[in-house]
Amino acid sequence: MKASGYDAYIVPSIDEHQSKMMTDHDKRREFISGFTGSSGTAVILSELAALWTDGRYFIQAEQELDCNWILMKRYEPGVPEPDDWIIQVLGAGGNVGVDPKLLPYNVWMTLKEKLTHKGLNLMEDSSNLIDDIWNIPQGRAPESISHVFIHDVKYTGQPWEDKVKKLREILNDNGANGTVVTALDEIAWLFNLRGNDIADTPLFKAYSFISTNQIRLYIRPLKLTPEVEKHLCPNLNNSECVKLEDYVYAFGDMKKVIPESGKILVSSSSSYAVVNLVPE
């Protein structure tokens, strides 16, 4: 934190796709705090650390947090919200860091406005401080490479090509040329695919960029089988082939293709980092 110039660092309980249910690899707040409940926000200062969670987890949090942590019983009388506590403790001039991939755009903008009004700065953490100190030798689960599989059209009701066609019609009706799909359930539905990345869900980690003339799916190559590749490109001469790109390079690739594509629609519930790829 000191090297990055942060006076406070926020660790939320969601992943890059704003999923509250996530892979073990993405449980950053659990790693840093020791609290294993599904809901909570950790805030770390140079000499203080606090965790907010709701009434479902008060007893669990008391048992799992060690003496380095203050338990903030969210929604109880007199308990400030994380941003209010940061403002109270730091005061004007403080720098607050958070990974822009882990906050929805609308949440980021609300937080930025509030902190700026009180004289604090919200800074983008391009690397993620938790990732910098948490690795596989320290017990971090590796990224899933479980294969994705086809969800048959007899269950989906329509092929993925028809869904993309309908999506493009909606984009056209809104005067847009493309969109970025970030929610994992939406990607699984759109391409008639399922996966096993997240326990108790049929989802897999991926991004997609769809415009009037291209379809890109960002996914780790080891997750793909020949059957899935053929499903996504049944005819090499067909313009409706999905271009497969490595998930690791999603942001770098989208940063190049999005400015060339005209008007892009992106949900405000997508991460600030994704929305920030779209030129104003």
Polypeptide structure, described:
- This protein is α/β, with parallel strands linked by helices and 280 residues long.
- It has 2 domains: 2-133, Creatinase/prolidase N-terminal domain (Creatine Amidinohydrolase, Chain A, domain 1); 149-276, Creatine Amidinohydrolase, Chain A, domain 1.
- Helices cover 30% and strands 17% of the residues.
- A 6-stranded mixed beta sheet has the order 4-3-2-1-5-6, sandwiched between helices. Strands 12-11-10-8-13 form a 5-stranded mixed beta sheet, sandwiched between helices.
- Helix 2 (58-64) links the parallel strand 3 and strand 4.
List keywords for this structure.
globular; Creatine Amidinohydrolase, Chain A, domain 1; five-stranded mixed beta sheet; single chain; 280 residues; 2 domains; 11 helices; six-stranded mixed beta sheet; alpha/beta
